[in-house]
Structures are given as C-alpha cells and as structure tokens.
Amino acid sequence: MLKFKEVKNFLLNFGPQHPAAHGVLRLILETDGEVIKKADSHIGLLHRGTEKLLENKIYTQGLPYFDRLDYVSMMAQELTFSMSIEKVLGITIPKRALHLRVVFLELTRILNHLLALTTHALDVGAMTPFLWAFEEREKLMEFYERVSGARLHANFIRPGGLAWDCNSSLLYDIFNWLNNFETHIFELENVLIHNRIFKQRLVNIGVMSAFKAFNWGYTGVMLRSTGIKWDLRKTGFLNDLYKDFLVKIPIGLRGDCYDRFLMRIQEMYESCFIIRNALELLPEGNVMSTNSKIIVPPRRNMRMDMEALIHHFKLCSEGYDIFKGQSYFALEAPKGEFGVFLATSNSNKPYRCYIRALVFFIYKV
Amino acid sequence: MIILNKDHILNIIKKKSENQLITFNKYKVLFILDLIGLCSDVVESVDLQFDTAVTEGNLNCSIVVNPADIFYTVLMLTSTNIFGECNLIAITCTDNLVQDKFVKDLDKRFTLTYIFLDVKNNSRLNINVNFSEGYMIQSITSLFKSANWLEREIFDLFGIFFAGHKDLRRILTDYGFQGNPLKKDFPLTGYLELRYDEYKKYVGYKNIDLMQEFRVFNTESPWEKLEIVSFTL
C-alpha cells in the first residue's frame, strides 16, 4: 500500500553574517530541495536614519550625508542634492563647473561599474578581473583624493558649483588615464565576454520584461536592459548638464544578466568618451556661482570686504532659507534614477527630505 | 486655465483610448481628473515656482486628491493611458505637525505624495493626499508592485495604515522597535539606546533620559531673504 507523506518546505536563514550578504541583508528562504520557492528579505540592518538627520541639519551640513548613502557612487548623490537645491532656488551654475561636474559624475559611473561588474564576476567564479579593476579603481580614487582631499566621501560638489577648482595637472592626468583605461576595459571584456562558464551563468538568468520592469519601478541600466530607451542624461531634467556632449546610450534586448553586463561595459566606454569631450571643451572661468546670499564668499574677499565677512558668518552659522513648497529632482546615477524629494517650510533646514534609493527598488525582486 | 466643456473632454478620452498618438497636453490630465471629480485642487503655484526646466510637451505638476479617491485616481491614470506609460517612482510622506508652528487642523496631519514618471512623454506627476492621523488609506499594491515596499516603509516610519496591503510589516527599523521615527514628535535621539552592560555582560537596549519636552523652534531667519528671479516660466 502506498503511503503518502506530506513534505514540508525547508526554511533557511541566509545572512546577515553571510559573506555574500555583507552584514546588511538577511533573507528567510523557503526551499524545496535546492530550489528557492520564496524569499523574505529583511533589509533594515543598515538603516541609519539619514532622512531624520537631514531634517535637523542646515542644507550645507546635510550634503556630506549624501556621500555616505552609497559609497560607490558618491559624487552622483552629492550632485543630486546640490542640483535639487539649485533648482529650487533658481541659481545658475558657471559653465566650467558644469563641465567638471560631468567629468566627475562620469568618473563615478566608471568607479561604480568597475565594482559592479567585477564583484559580480567574482561571485560567479572569475577572480582576475576583480583584481584588475581594483587597480583602476585605486587610480580613480586617487583623482578623488587629489580633487577633494578624500578618497571616498568627497563633499566636493556644493549647491552653487564646486568647492574649488581643479588644477590643470589633475585634468591632464585624467586625460592620460583615459587613454590607458580604454585598453583596460578591453582586456576585462576579452576575459569575460566569450568565457563559456561566465556565459552559462549569465545568459538568460534574471530575465525581466519591459512591463514587469515598469511595474517594479526599475530605472537605469536595469530598465534599459529590457529595451526601453530611457536615460535621464538625455531627457529635459538634465538638459543644461549634458546637452554639449553626445551621449550614446546602450540598450539591451533580452533583459537578462548578460545584457546588463554588456551594457555596463559599453557605458564605461561611453563615459570615457564623455569625459574626454568635457575636458576638451572645458572653458575657463569661475567654478562657483556668485550669488552671495547662498554661496560662501572666497576667503580673500573676506579679509577686504565687510559685507563678505557678514555673509560668511551668516551662511556658516544659520545657512539660507528656502520658502515653503515641495520639489522632486532626479539624476541618472550609475545604478539608476537617484532622486531627492524636498519639502521645505521657510526655514534653513529641509522640512522633509525623501531620498529615492535605487537598490530599494531592485532588491524587492 | 483654459475652459473646455465636458463633451470635448470625453471625446479626448475616447480618442486617447483608440489611438495613443494624441500629443500630450499639460492640462489634459488635470481636466480629465477634474471631470471625473477626483482632483480637488491643482497645486499650480508650487509647480510654477519650482520647475524652471519645463519644456514643451512636458508635464511637471502636482495635484491634490481626496484621500478616499487615491486608488481610483491611480487606476484612471494607469488604465486609460491618460498619463502615458505610468511608472511609480516613489511614494513619500510628510508629517505636517510643525509645518507652521503647530498645525491647527489635524485633518491635514500627513501629506502623502505619489511621484509618477511617464517615460514616453518625459513628464512627471505628483499626486498629493492630505489626511488625518489614523486614516486608512487605500493601498495601490494591486496596481504597482513597487508600491509594496514603499507602503511598508511609510507604515514603518510614519505609522500610516494601508487598507488592502497584504503584508504590512515593519521594514527598515529593528526587530521589536516601537514608534514611528519620521514623525515630527519622535525625538532625534529616539527613546532607546544600545549599550553594553559591563556587569551583566550583554548588549541591550536602555532608556535614554530626555532632558526636555518636545519643543518646536522657529528657525526662520530675519536676515534679508533671497531675491528670487528665475521663477518665471
């Protein structure tokens, strides 16, 4: 006689101390044999209450928090916060500052993609690209250090422009580095792109349709891999920033992991192209807006000018007020649309600052 | 604002559903929502003040909807393609408790903002909902899967309940956490701190002594205000 026995699915705890979870992600997995049937993710292990902290800081003090949100795309986040304040206040930025912003935004994109691609390759079994990429990342972080004094948390892009100008030797070095870097991408690509094992583990894995991608709130590379032509660098939001440079955007066909891998590689080439363009067209001039009600005056003026001294004191002690209202500003960060929602209330602190985290949307799936 | 009659707008909707090539108009969404009686107020001023980068064909505006109608508004937006390809970018909440000193009418304690992006027309629409504490707002998880975690986040940080959400748990705060940290009457330090107890040899939560009651400071500066030049459209 046959006996039926009810088989229960096995519940498994993954993380947060698992090396692949980095101490920030915990999954409760329901497994049937080796197949995961259900996953419940607990993501709050790294929540640091940044939004609450921002409500208690003046706008200038809030800026460094944006570096620390995602420590592989620092400048993109600074830029979003700075630009959202600029849009609300209606400040215009000098041309040179815009170009340098583009340069550093694209450097950040490369920094991020190098990490994303090669740690991914490490997870599926290729160690070498990881080591190569980290050498290049080290050089990039050196540029960060030379421009701002910090390797990661730059605090370089401020509302109104940049903290200070870059010297020409740095720009020259970036230009030289680009030439070498393109060959490095080519090497990296060569190792992985036709690798049988790598392809076995990526092609047709994590396939996402366009409809699903919309429904899940995807942006950035993840959305583009499904074949949708959408990049904030191309659209009106950032018109003044990118209109001078020819931005070509790679778009995926199948929406799988391999597509996204190829797109990220291609985006790095494009970033190199944009940086080179931006550097070649770099105009001379100021890097900070001259609106003295918002921007701290240069130190040499403060020694000579009473008004500058007062402005410095007022801006450094109580900051500037923004009238009541709400605004949303988003920017194409390396991982997708990074947005800042600001609700202001006639005071020198944001009344509410919502930060649209990209991975929040992607982790869900 | 331009004034159109009802028949005209109904024709627009019909045409829209038949072929999607009608060019996008800034006022179309607002009028259609107005017609159906969903949109109670158009926050035109905010839009005009804040958006310096509006180009033609783009809609960047925010509207106010009754809290009871939010589900139908979003349903209208998605199902009739009034707003093109609808992508839910974010849902965020503002606690209006100390917006102007203290809010007198607690009917508007919370403002929920739904931010939508239309990829096809490159336009954005914010839908605002004002409601009091304890109001059950309807969940839109059946329309957008991305709303799931967003609503959980708001439930966690603001204590707002969403009717029809199947899995409304805390998401960002610690296991066993109490209170809603982004409410304005929640202190920045919180009520508890994590500490190592030398005698008992374990790490545990201890109460924090809060030195003073919750107060609101007026930080508005008497210093001369910034002259706003570039807000004209």
Largest sheet of chain A, order of strands side by side? 1-2-3
Helix content of chain A: 40-55%
Terminus-to-terminus distance of chain A: 44 Å
> Count the strands of chain B?
9
Mean pLDDT of chain B: 70
Task: Give me the count of strands of chain A.
Answer: 8
| Main sheet overview of chain B | 5 strands, mixed
- Flag low-confidence runs of chain B: 1-6, 16-27, 40-58, 228-233
Beta-strand proportion of chain B = 15-25%
Radius of gyration of chain A: 23 Å
Give structural attributes.
heterodimer; A: 365 residues; three-stranded antiparallel sheet; globular; B: 233 residues; alpha/beta; five-stranded mixed sheet; disordered N terminus; disordered C terminus
Question: What is shown here, in short?
Answer:
Chain A has 365 residues and is of the alpha+beta class. Helices cover 48% and strands 13% of the residues of chain A. Chain A has a three-stranded antiparallel beta sheet with strand order 1-2-3, with no helix packed on it.
3D structure, described in words:
The complex is a heterodimer of chains A (365) and B (233). With 365 residues, chain A is α+β, with helices and mostly antiparallel strands. Chain A contains 14 helices and eight strands. Chain A has helices spanning 50-54, 59-67, 74-89, 95-124, 128-148, 168-193, 196-202, 210-215, 220-224, 239-242, 257-280, 299-304, 306-317, 358-363, and strands at 10-14, 26-32, 35-42, 157-158, 161-162, 325-333, 336-344, 352-356. In chain A, strands 1-2-3 form a three-stranded antiparallel sheet, with no helix packed on it. A three-stranded antiparallel sheet of chain A has the order 6-7-8. In chain A, strand 4 and strand 5 form a beta hairpin. In chain A, helix 2 packs antiparallel against helix 3 (74-89). The radius of gyration of chain A is 23 Å and the shape is globular. Chain A starts with 9 loop residues before the first strand and ends with a helix. Chain B is of the alpha/beta class and 233 residues long. Helix content of chain B is 23%, strand content 24%. Chain B is built from five helices and nine strands. Chain B has helices at residues 6-18, 26-36, 44-50, 70-79, 147-158; strands at 39-43, 60-65, 86-95, 110-118, 123-131, 137-138, 162-163, 192-197, 202-207. In chain B, strands 1-2-5-4-3 form a five-stranded mixed sheet. In chain B, a hairpin with a 4-residue loop joins strand 8 and strand 9. The longest helix of chain B has 13 residues, at 6-18. The model of chain B is unreliable at 1-6, 16-27, 40-58 and 228-233 (pLDDT under 50). At the A-B interface, helix 1, helix 3, strand 6, strand 7 and strand 8 of A face helix 3, strand 3, strand 4 and helix 5 of B.
